[in-house]
Fold each of these.
Amino acid sequence: MGFLIRVLINAVAIYVATALVAGIHVSTTGTLLLAALVLALINAAVRPVMIILTLPLTILSLGLFLLVLNAVCLLLVALLVPGVEVRSFGAAFLGALIISVVSWLLTRLID
C-alpha cells in the first residue's frame, strides 16, 4: 500500500512539474502513471547505487550534487517511458527540483 501511495505522489509531482516547466511533456494520463511507477522504481533501486558511487562529489558539494542525481533520474525516466519528453538537462534539473519539493510536501501532508 505504501508503494502505491508513493507512485501516486510521484504522479502528482510529475504533473505539477509538467505544468510549470515548459521543457517537460507527458502525453497521456496513462503515461503519467507509468512514468510515476518507473520513477519510484528508479528511486528505490538505481538512485541508492548512484548516491554511493558519487559520494565524494556529494560531500564536496555539501549535498547539492544530489540535485544533479535527481535530474539524471528524471532523464532516465524520459528514456525508458515512451511519451515522456524532457528537452534539456536544465528542464530536467528544474523539473526534478519541483518533483522533489512537491513530493516532500505531499508526503508530509499524508504522514
Note: The longest helix spans residues 29-53.
Amino acid sequence: MRLILRQSFPLGRFHATPWRVNPFDDPFGEWPPSPWRLVRAVVARWYQWSRESAESPDLSQLDALARALCESSYSFYLPAHAMRGSPLRQYHPVEFGWVPPAKKDKPIPRMKAYGTSLVQDNYWSVPTGDDGTIWWFLDGDAWTPQLIEVLDRCIERLIYFGRAETFTTVRRDASSALRPNCEPRDRPCSQASVRVLCPQRDASRADVERITDDPQSAGRTIPPGAKLMYADVPPRVPVREQSAIFVPRTDCHLIQLAVGWSVAPEPRAIVRLTARYRSAVIRELLDIKTEGQYHSWRTAPKSVRSAIADMLGKDANGVPFKQHSHTEFLSWWHDGAPTRLLVWRGSRPFGADEQRAVLRAAVRELSWAAMGPDADAWKIRLIPLDAAVPAPPGFDGTSATTWESLTPYVPPRHHLRGGKPREAESFTVQIRRELTLRGVPGGEQVEVGEPIAATWVAVHVPLRKAAGPTLGDRRGYWLRLTFPQPIVGPLRLGNSSSFGLGLFKPVT
C-alpha cells in the first residue's frame, strides 16, 4: 500500500542538522528530510495524542505504528526551487555563573550572568505555497485502515520539523499526479549523492525513541535502528531574472525614486548624493546614445554632447545654460531623513532614452559619505516609483503664499564680511533678486523671516571653477518666505539649487 504525505513550510525554511553532526563541519544541512526524523516525529506526536485522549494509552497500537513506519520504503518529490540558505550564526545563552571565568592569582572584576555559546544554523530555503510542497511516498504492507487513522491523528499535531523554528504542516493526500524525483538507495549513484538516514526494517520502538545522550547512541554517527542510504537531489531549476518591459511615460516632467538606507544620510550630504546619482545618469545616457562607445562627456563627440545637453545643463562646448531649463536632481526630506530623490525638468518632458538612463542608474547603490576610506561604508538604494505615486507638495501644482525650507538654503553670495552683515547682500536682497530673475510673481516683494536653523552643508563647485575637488562646504539656513500672492512651485533657490539644496515646500 502506498501512503502519500504532503509537507509544507509556512516560513519558507527547513532548519535541520544530520544526526550527531557538528553544524560548523556540515554547512549544507539536511536535505532531503531524513525518513528517520519523520518516524521519530510521528512517534513523539502519538504520545501527545494519547495524553489528549480520555482513554488509557494502548502501547501495542504504538508498537504497530512504529513497525509500519520502519518497514515502509521512502521516496520523495522535492520542490525544484529549493536552495541552500546562507548559514546563520547566533549566540545562545548557556549556564549561569561568573563572567569572565576566574584566573589563578589574577583578581579581575566579574559579574554573574549567562554565558553564551556560538551556534551555526544551517537551513534550506523552500518556496511557500504549492511550489514548495514536499511529497512523501511511503510504500509498505503493514498499513491497515486503523493504523492510517492513527497516523493522521499524529501528523496533524506536527507543528515543527527539525529545529524548533521550522514550522511545518503535514497532511495525508489520497492521491497525487506527481511521481518521486528522489529515492534513497543503498549505494551512492554519483559524486553528488547525499547521505540520508532511514529506519531499518527490524528497528524497535525503543530504537526510535532513543535520544542522542543514550549510552547506546553515544559516539555513534548512525543511531541504533537506523541505516545510512544515499539520494540524488534533483538539480535546481536555474533562476533567470525576467526583464521588465520598459514603457516610456508621456509628458513626464518628474521621476521619483524612493530612498532606502540602513543609516540615514545627513543633511550635509545632500549634494554628494544627488551629484553622484547625476553622474551615474549621465554615464548611462551616454552609453545608451552611443551604444556603449562612450561613458565620459569629455571624450564624447560634440553631436553626442548636444544630445544630452538638457540633462547635463551645458552645451557641447561646456558653456552652462543661463536659464534653469536643464534637469535638476532634488532630494525630498521627511522627519529629518531623505525619503525620495526627484529628477525634475520643467522646460520639456523627459525622452525615452532619458527615462531609461534614470532607471538604469538607480540599479546601483550610491554612497553619501565624503571621499576617503569610508566612502563605500554608507550607501543608499534607489527604488523607482511609478506614475501612480502622487507628486510631493510643490510639484503637484499646489499654490501657497508661505513656503518653508525643506533643505538648507545656501546664499549664492556671502552675506557676511568680517562677521558683520552686508546690507547689499542680505538674505532678502539675494532671494528677491533670484526670484525676479526666475520670473516668480511677487518675487520683488517677498518677505524673508529670520533663519530658523543653520548647518554646514556640502555645495557643488563646477570643475571650471575648481581644479581640485568639486564639493565645498558652506553655511546653510532654514528660512520661511511669505509672498504677497499665492505662487505655484516647485521653488528652489540659492547655491546648488539644482542639486537638492534650497528646496522649499508650501505651507498650507
Note: The first strand starts at residue 2 and ends at 8.
Amino acid sequence: MSKRILTTEILTETVPMLLRRGSNAQQIADILGCKYNTLKVRCSQAGVSLRGPNGERPPRQQRSVKVNIATLDMLREKALAAGVTEIDIANRLLRIIAEDNLYNAILDDAA
C-alpha cells in the first residue's frame, strides 16, 4: 500500500502556506507529487480553499474543444498506432503548433 501524500496536516497547513507564498493549485500539486484534480477534490473534501490570498480563483487547467467525428477518428487511428489516446495526440499537436508558431505553415496562410 502506498503512503498517503495528502494528509490532513498537508491539506490544512502546507497547502495554505504555499498559497500565501504565491503558488497556484497546479504548482502545489506538482510540489506535493499528486495530480491537480486529486488535490482539488481532497481540498474540497477537507474544506480547504485553493483560492489565492486575495480570494482569486485558480486559472482553469483545461478547456474543451469540439472536433468533428471524422477528425476524431483520424486522431484515434494515429493514437492507437502510437499507443496513446486521441486526447494525448491532439494536445501534443496543439502544443507544438503553439510553441513553434506553426499556424501559418499549417493553415497555408501567406502572412
Note: The chain has two domains: 1-60, 69-107.
Amino acid sequence: MKTRIVTAALLAASLPAFAASGQDAVAAPEFDVASVKPSPPPQSGTMFMTGCRMPDPGRFECQNTPFRMLVVRAFGLDDFRVSAPEWTTSEKFDIAAKVPAGSSPDQVNLMLQKLLADRFGMVAHRETKDLQVYLLTVGKNGPKLTEWKDGDTLPAMTPPPAAIPGGNVAGSVMPMQAERRVVMGGSSGPAAGAATPGSAGSVRFSTRGGVSTMEVNRMKLSTVARMLESHVGHHIVDETGLTGFYNFSLRFAAGESAGSAGVIVTRGSSGEPLPPLADAGSEPAPSIFSAVQNQLGLKLEAKRVLTEVVVVDKAERVPSAN
C-alpha cells in the first residue's frame, strides 16, 4: 500500500497547475488575443498540417487539432493520462493566439488551459486511476534492429506525387528531434543527409487497405514507444535498455487510429514533405503486437499502474464566438 501511495504522490507532483478547473486562486495567464474556430473538413487527396506549434515566441497556433489533443497540450501530459468524452477525439479546431512577451512554455500551456475554460466552458479535475500500460522489452532472441552508424543518411525530403492511386490512403511524415516526443508540425534539424548529434531523424507512415507501414530512421526506442501508443491504445514504457539510435521498418494491421482518406503530411524545417511509402502489399498483416515481436525482436507486455490523470467533466463542442 505504501508503494502505491508514494507512486501516486510523485505523479501528482508532476502535473502542472490546474487552472482550467477553477481550483487555482491565482489568476491564470492568458493570451493577449485568440481566435478559435472549428477546422474545415480535409479533402481527400490534399495535404494539410495538424497539431500545435509556436512559429515564433509571440505566436501560438493549432491546426486541425482534436479537442482532446488541445487538453493534452494544455496540461503537458501524455495522451493516456487524459480522460475525455468520445467527441473530443473527432472534433477538431484551429487556434491562432498572440502570446505576451517573455512568456515561458509552461505559461503558454496555462494560457491554453484558460482558453479552453473560457471558450469551451471546460471543467476538469484530477484523480488517480489504475491504468493499463505496456512495457516495451527485448525478446528472448534479441532485437532485430539496425543501429544508426556515423555516415548514414536520412531519406531525401522530396515533394509527393500530385495524386496517390488507390484512394483511402493516410500517410504522415514526422521529421523531429531524436530525443523529442512526436509532435505533429515538425521540428528543427536537417531534412536529409548525414545526421549530427541532436539533428532530426525521420518517420514515414502510411496506411492502405487496412495495412500500416512505418519506416523509421535514426530514432531512439523511447521515442518509437511514444509513436506506437496510438496503435495499442495505451501508454508504452521503454524498458529495453537499448540507448542507441535505430533504423527499421514495421508492417502491421491498421486499427481505428490509423487515419482516414486523404494524405496527412507534416513538414520539417526544409518545408518539403517526404513522399508516401510504397504500397503495403497484399499479404495479410499481423497485429501490432506480433509485428513488434517478430519484425523487431521486441515485446509489448501489459501491466497495471496507479496513475494521476486529468478528467474532462464538461466541455462544449462549439466554442464561443471570437
Note: The longest strand covers residues 298-314.
